[in-house]
Design brief:
By secondary structure, the chain is α/β, with parallel strands linked by helices. The protein is built from six helices and nine strands, in the order βββαββαααβαβαββ.
Length: 227
Amino acid sequence: MSASAPEAATSALCARVDQVSKLFGSFAALRQISVDLEPGRCYVLLGENGAGKSTLLRVLAGLLHPTHGTVKVFGGLDPHEARERIGYMSHAPMLYDELTAQENLQYFASLYPERACLAPEEALRLVGLDPKLTRLFGQYSQGMRQRTSLARVLIPQPDLLLLDEPFSNMDIESASQMVELLARFRHGTRTIVLTTHQRELAMPIADYILRLKAGRVVEFTPGSPTL
């Protein structure tokens, strides 16, 4: 089953995944996936563990090369050519335990000298954290670590935001606040692709539902976003 829209002009798309397979030895994590991602939309990836959701995100982020097929972003670029325009939040926080949240974000902002980055204080406030907090990141609760991780990927204001289980370790109130933040972020031309095992949390911003099974797309349906 294809989630691609052949009639859509590539230049008008945020990303096009064309017949992509990803093999790890003899194991096929992705099997001939085709997906077109439109600007300003939120795509929610669903599926059991091992379905290929995280692998697809990493391929879109340019962290994995497809074994077969092609991935193009922003009108025909390879993801590696557009890394500054792609934000990727993995299961691991990718932050330094011995620094405060603000010190972490100051460091990551310095990695994007040509981007109009958010101020670290602003990014922290956006995710509901106090930028004046002096506690080291390593002493944060799981929910606070998740919020800081999101602040990190928001710093360069990416055009494509890839989130792997962003609601994990969050209570319902915190997750709802994150959904509202993502709704504001995607307005305009920014695209969000997120994986979750908590479908109900993502439904308010889901423009499309994309379900994977054993590395294949088995469902691609419109959502009913309310935010």
